[in-house]
Task: structure prediction
Amino acid sequence: MKRKDFLKGAGALVGGLAMSRDLKAADFNRMLRDAAGRGDEFYWDVIRDQFLLDPEWTYLNFGGLGSSPLPILNSLSEWLRVEERAPSAGADAKEWAAAKAKLASVLGPSCKPENLGLIGGATEGVNAIVNGLALKKGDEVITSTHEHVAVNSALLNRMQRDGIVIKLFEPDRVRGLGNVDRIAALITPRTRLIMFSHVTCTTGQLFPAKEVAKLAHDRGIWFAMDGAQAPVCVPFDIVDLGVDFYTCSTHKWLMGPKRTGFIYVRTGMIDAIRPMTVGGGSSQVVDIFKREFVLHPNAARFESGTQNDALFYAMGKACEFVQSIGLQRIWQRAHGLTEAFVAGLRAIPGVELLSPEEEAYRTCMVGFRMKSRTMNQINDQLTKDKIRARPVGEGGLNSIRISFFLCNKSSDVDLALDSLKKLAG
Ligand SMILES: Cc1ncc(COP(=O)(O)O)c(C=O)c1O
Result:
């Protein structure tokens, strides 16, 4: 059976494009099961058909910005309509809680909705963490040289405002656990916070979380992670990481609507972090006459003001979408493509792989450079071949980052390699 007929039969193709808004989660799961019975490539092609990505282009930049597939877009548009039909300030408590519960289940079996605050993205979360902790002049914060501008800005801002001291470690890309030693070497009695990416935006390096959590906790140091690049890109259990604070933009690998994200606060740590933005929704008691103010005793304290609820309900749909495929299955597919690309890169003369040498610390993003080529020259070639990648200026790398995800296929790996071979040639 042709894929088009298959999708039509499943009610998933209307007018050659839009997935039926009536296709319920159960039907979608059945469609995926049927597709799986027709072979791996058929299955992944059916998934790929859910995306509006321009077929003229090869999109290898989920690390930059995700693309929401049709079930999520449809959910968003339905919720927007619901909201516009009967505008009402304040979220629907049941739907809001349901979205959070769905997100919690993506983040691991013991993550609880109360550990999570729904916010606009990692930039917001990073700022909530860096500004919310009681840091004062001379307190030291350890971070890596491969952080996103979000972390760098928040730390530098606090440095200028309050005189915190920033200490940097260069990621060890040869030995993943070498990063624990590099961090340990920077700890002094003034160290209060260790904060870095779970997966770096530069080379897709997975940092060891559990080992650093132990190191930090043994010394009474807070441990926070910028997880913008991690959930759904790599499978993990957030509670098991042992991290105190964690934040993520769910518009990348989770494929939720843009401007959605979360902050996670480990059970028992909520009083260590005070929100810098508060308002309607962030407190249990607010009484200006009695001078009483009691924040929520959980991460809901980071949610304040009028929300665009539809975004978060559709983010809940994104959680259902990835779970109906399976986080492990997504990982195997995306990481498999990435490893094929890494193997191909190694065979191109003049290519320097910047991603970790140990596969256990590589994810679904690869960082590399080419001898005598700038990142812009490489990116120009990729663009000429209609491949969307991401030049990386961070950390002075002057490199390229390529991301592979569930809607990519092995021919995308070949296209990218062929494009790079032209430069090497
Ligand atoms: C590691 C990392 N942190 C933070 C961010 C900022 O995310 P946002 O712009 O969605 O807030 C990004 C975005 O690419 C990122 O890769």
User: Anything to note?
Assistant: Residues 327-346 form the longest helix (20 residues).
